[in-house]
Amino acid sequence: MAAASSSSSLYSGSKLLLGFTCKGKKMPLKFRWTIAFLVFTLSRCFADDDHEMEEFLKREHSLSKPYQGVGSSSSSHWELMGDAMVTTEQVRLTPDMQSRQGAIWSRIPCHLKDWEVQVHFKIHGQGKKNLNGDGLAIWYTKERMQKGPVFGNKDNFTGLGVFVDTYPNEEKHIERIFPFVLAMVGNGSISYDHERDGRPTELGGCNAMVRNLKHDSFLFIRYVRRRLTVMIDIDGQHEWRDCLDLPGVRLPQGYYFGASAITGDLSDNHDIISMKLYQLTVLRSKKEEEEEEEDVITIPSVDNMELIRLGQSDEGMSGIAIFFTVLFSMVGCIFLIVIGLVVYSHWNENRRKRFY
């Protein structure tokens, strides 16, 4: 409807332009047709933007009430692991108890090129602020059903992990508010740094106050044209908030979706209410299709990862550190300017003496 209304309004505008008169005289025919062509092109652009992407729910890859596809039989679509259990209201990955971990994994590999996952989740417990943990993760990985220390999944995973980290492990006073949502791509040999809250390998993220909310909380993960987008809806306004948007993310097809959580000395209830996977149909040019066919992705990777890490290395600077960095930089610049003036004055004085 949006595309139709915008196109019709532009079309009406073109009719007005074609019949436009200036002081009783019509525009030259050539000029009028040029304007009409531009208006038509704009209307096509608006229409293409609105119809560029369509989404289709893939039920075999989705998890929702009443969770009939969850079980241990070979015919079920989802499988539980560890302390995870199904209730009538949610899939509880961990209860609010110490030293628990649980997960739920899809049995069916996903062979979609472009996809979107919307996760309805809830994290709640008796612990006060910073006395709760540890968080949950949404996965798209080659491996499945393997316990481990990374939010209940194995370390050195192959694929994508999006983490809702609720407890800060790093002791340094870094300006990051928890809970924090972050993403990581692993190739099977990259380890998640638990002590530093995954900073060395994160692609980006955002803070998200998701504990003990009275309204629903959602996580949105989209992978289109090798671009990863993560958004959250945690304010009860039914509006997505940007968290991460990164091009150059290369994820193979045929991996598994899953969710996991873990508790340690501190705990929380980690619940998944639903996980809905949508197939996205995206218009591609013939050139884009040929390039993607030639460049087949077999190992997960991220373009320009070194630049991403370089940019994140400055994130943890405190206000005092930034102040002194700027101060010393200014002092250094002033010092260089003074030295330059002294050298110039000496050179100018010697130059004058040569003329006498």
Strand-helix topology:
Blueprint: H1 2-18, E1 21-22, E2 25-26, H2 29-51, E3 53-57, E4 78-82, E5 85-86, E6 91-94, E7 101-106, E8 115-124, E9 135-141, E10 158-165, E11 180-187, E12 205-207, E13 217-224, E14 227-233, E15 241-247, E16 249-250, E17 256-262, E18 269-282, H3 286-294, E19 301-302, H4 305-312, H5 319-353
Antiparallel strand pairs: 1-2, 3-18, 4-7, 5-6, 6-18, 7-17, 8-13, 8-18, 9-10, 9-17, 10-11, 11-12, 13-14, 14-15, 16-19
Helix pairs in contact: 1-2
Summarize this, please?
The chain is an alpha+beta fold and 356 residues long. Helix content is 26%, strand content 31%.
Q: What does this molecule look like?
A:
The chain is an alpha+beta fold and 356 residues long. The chain has a single domain, classed as Jelly Rolls, CATH 2.60.120.200. The strands form four sheets. Strands 3, 5, 6, 8, 13, 14, 15 and 18 form an eight-stranded antiparallel beta sheet that branches. Helix 1 packs antiparallel against helix 2. It is globular and about 95 Å long. InterPro entries: ConA-like_dom_sf, Intracellular_Lectin-GPT, Lectin_leg. It comes from Oreochromis niloticus. One of its GO terms (molecular function) is D-mannose binding.
